[in-house]
TrEMBL record, chains A, B:
Cellular component terms per the entry's GO annotation: extracellular region; lysosome
PANTHER family registered for this protein in UniProt: EPENDYMIN-RELATED, MAMMALIAN EPENDYMIN-RELATED PROTEIN 1
Coiled-coil intervals: none
GO MF term set: calcium ion binding
Protein name per UniProt: Ependymin
Record keywords, A-Z: Signal
Biological process according to GO: cell-matrix adhesion
Organism: Hemibagrus wyckioides
Amino acid sequence: MQAALVLTVILSSLLGAFAQKPHHCKSPPYLQGKLAVDFPEGKTMVYEQFYYDALEERIRVVAAGKEGEHDVFMDRLLLFREKVYYDIIYHNKTCTKNSLDAAFVPIAIPFDAKHRAQVVLGSLSAPAEGLLVNNWVGSDAEIKANYSLTFTEFGCIPVVTLYHIDGVGHFLSSFFDMIIGIGDPSALIPPAFCFSNNTVERRDGKATNFFTALL
Amino acid sequence: MQAALVLTVILSSLLGAFAQKPHHCKSPPYLQGKLAVDFPEGKTMVYEQFYYDALEERIRVVAAGKEGEHDVFMDRLLLFREKVYYDIIYHNKTCTKNSLDAAFVPIAIPFDAKHRAQVVLGSLSAPAEGLLVNNWVGSDAEIKANYSLTFTEFGCIPVVTLYHIDGVGHFLSSFFDMIIGIGDPSALIPPAFCFSNNTVERRDGKATNFFTALL
């Protein structure tokens, strides 16, 4: 009887220890938020508002920023299941429809990423003063990139991602104001004028995972 | 009677609105934590463990990192009230005692800093998944620097500070694992061998506020 009790205690401690290890997590299926992207050499800085739906495999990104001296603006809706993406221009109600070859890759820590550190941003000494995050590193052979991903321990929300792409440079994305859920579902549906005759169709589209789709 | 009630409601809403505005805060008097400092042009990267006591005006910094190809290491105890700082070398039990001209400047948002943004790191959609922070910008005439300071809304804990010093470059400090309090008070007392005959005294010391003292 006592031996069984000891065995139970040991087993549950072991299982507890395994459970406590940071795990390769996947973000919630519905997310919206903002991010600031710093492109190679600090020449381009872009602010983006995005909507992410992993169930129906749709992403909407509205980006505005500066590339050197030029203003840049982009409003893109990626529909991975339909294998198309739309570039939407509201002010003259036109659309460009492009083919999209890539498979939808959900926001997640890749299975082969290595856990580097768990740290607290701010402090856990008092409630609401700190945030527990994990940093993961790895490389993506497909896009020839090394990455560093920092996600929250609870909820698996992205905080900072850094991609270093061979021969291109660094892409630093800082995520903020993230909401679990979608506040405006219509943001993930092409506007009516995208189905009119004004819509130009192209077949040169290419995009990969969520992060590189936002670049 | 009704007019008085309306006035009370209006006044309390107004006062509420003022109270809700992010305020120029001061960090807790006892803090310890870690920071990663990225020096100009990314040539030097230093990790620091620090202990901060604003009541007795003492700071201890242990820094290790790389400057180009060279390893750098520093263990410094700054005693602002006594106007001295010690550079401590444990492995051969020697000390350098230096004069310290600067006034102690507590960790705080300077009174003339401008509030730029309040954002959530992670998400407030669920408990423990997000952190509310404020970003402040301004300039410091004394050290000829522009700065961007990101502190937690609750607790006034530093998260990221960026100093751009004229003619020198950027200093990016990322704070983490912050604890309110001091776990090891002896870290703020010079070790016994600093009072022996081996201690060299110098008079060329110079340091300014908390952040530049850590640089």
